[in-house]
């Protein structure tokens, strides 16, 4: 599969083609991607886009459609789980319909793999709830691209009625009966067996990764869902010698706003490069680089402000920073000098970051 080059994300208005209800609390939103934006919205399975509903309301949602869908139909589809009282994912979604237009950032994310038709791999995924969204794209793309590869999915939900993309998963199972294994685990109603009934906790993961989807038989794992599930599943798989584990958090715990800076406003000189133009400002030594940069370049990209989405990624050109947390950058990104500016605090009197890199 061709690697899609990463560009600095820029907002684009995308028309909503349709909104499909998946469950009582989840929908899929399909966007039309105009021909002139197809290159910007080219993506790899497993990536996400950021949607801007109001100037300060930005949310990242994984893409559930495939790169082939975009090539053939010019459409891209995301899965949205509604959060009661959520600024976008409740009232916003319920008011949304075909013909609306939303501001969307092009795809980002490293929760993916390089697919190759000549390769034979055994893929596995452990997901819960809306964590299925990027994995649906990975399953469909991997099985279509690599005719000899297989995919095993362990999918946790409260009840059968809350399973997102149940029809799409069923259709994939019909298309690839011998290459796709799906195990549904239900926590609040009986599953197909006692082993598939209950929470996806450590005991159940150990049982299922020894018996149903032996961890050692899988070449490459994908884990997506709440932090507790992803961290437990990763520990279980690593303990069983899993060679390659990709993780994606939908929610990394509460995003507590950093304590108000107590340093002086001119402790650090910050230089920001964006769209080929440099801006300079000063900031306290205990402030966050993104917050200071937004004061002089309000158009800067960001979404979660929690170290999860990578939308605020920039390259550190000079100086040093410390990141409070990082759930989005791979070790090779960090080694190449990339930082999450929403999490970065200066360690030197001068810091320069480049959002164009
Ligand atoms: S805005 Fe999401 S990681 Fe910084």
From TrEMBL:
Pfam families: FAD_binding_6 (PF00970), Fer2 (PF00111), NAD_binding_1 (PF00175). Residues 9-114 form the FAD-binding FR-type domain. Its cofactor is FAD. Transmembrane segments: none annotated. The keyword Iron-sulfur applies. Keywords: 2Fe-2S, FAD, Flavoprotein, Iron, Iron-sulfur, Metal-binding, Oxidoreductase. Residues 268-357 form the 2Fe-2S ferredoxin-type domain. It comes from the Bacteria. InterPro entries: 2Fe-2S_ferredoxin-like_sf (IPR036010), 2Fe-2S_ferredoxin-type (IPR001041), 2Fe2S_fd_BS (IPR006058), Beta-grasp_dom_sf (IPR012675), Cbr1-like_FAD-bd_dom (IPR008333), FAD-bd_FR_type (IPR017927), FNR_nucleotide-bd (IPR039261), MRET (IPR050415). PROSITE patterns: 2FE2S_FER_1 (PS00197), 2FE2S_FER_2 (PS51085), FAD_FR (PS51384). The keyword RNA-binding does not apply. GO terms for molecular function: 2 iron, 2 sulfur cluster binding; flavin adenine dinucleotide binding; metal ion binding; oxidoreductase activity. This is Ring-1,2-phenylacetyl-CoA epoxidase subunit PaaE. It comes from Catenuloplanes atrovinosus.
